[in-house]
Write a structure and sequence with these properties.
Helices cover 41% and strands 16% of the residues. It is α/β, with parallel strands linked by helices. The strands form two sheets. The protein has an eight-stranded parallel beta sheet with strand order 8-7-6-5-4-3-10-9. It has a two-stranded antiparallel sheet with strand order 1-2. β4, α2 and β5 (92-96) form a beta-alpha-beta unit. α1 (36-49) crosses α2 (71-88), α3 runs parallel beside α4 (125-132) and α8 (236-248) runs parallel beside α9. Bound molecules: 9-methylguanine.
Amino acid sequence: MKMNFAGRLVDLSRCQVMGILNVTPDSFSDGGRFTTADAALVRARTMVEDGASFIDVGGESTRPGAKPVSTQEELDRVCPVVEAIARELDTVISVDTSNPAVMEEVVGLGAGLINDVRALQREGAPEVAAKAGVPVCIMHIQGEPDTMQNNPRYHNVRRDVSSFLTERMRVVEKAGVRPENIILDPGFGFGKTVDHNIQLLATLEQLHLLGHPLLIGVSRKSMLGAITGRDVNERLPASLAAATISAMKGASILRVHDVRETVDAVKVVTAVKEAI
Ligand code: 9MG
């Protein structure tokens, strides 16, 4: 099954890897030798050479406690990087944003996927996404990033996440987003306890009933720290285990920090799946 990302066709029946490229001010502390866009391009090029099919550019931190960014600040962070990648690299550019003005601008610069952790809930976002005509990733979140980890609750986490995604699909399709342009994401770590995250991963295959490709982001997340007791920079083995489980359960896109290692893990999963 191929999806069209602003003219680039990607086969989502095979698991693909998306490299994470944060362009928040603390992301590239190199003593001022590079501009952020230069340094980001170097990082993006490495991830593409390592096998990433997507680069996810994000200018707003969604960590609890992170300061909100203005539209202008987000545009200033993200646009030069999107322009540079579009000019220099053969890859799908995804932009992690909830801001409709940013969505509109980056699609004009060559972005092929809108990745919204707020599921296009901001005013005007579904309409802008529909007009842009590129695929969108609709992610489940309970609450807002700042407060989402304050005692999250569900009746049944898998069913509640499915209901939320179904309702968001109804809204965005009504605004004109084409069903074939929708990717879904259960949103690991976004308003969920460790147990909620584990239950979601254990039942991931059931989200296929919603009929859309799944994007999964578990790389280095705190659920893996809670399970292993490891600090964030020591979570590669746990991240690869979670990525492998996700790929085995049919995820189409894995959003990761460690592209080269994840691509190898996915190659093993793909080889085994193709032998069945
Ligand atoms: C931006 N971002 C951070 N974590 C994410 C996740 O799990 N999924 C998606 N789609 N985006 C994410």
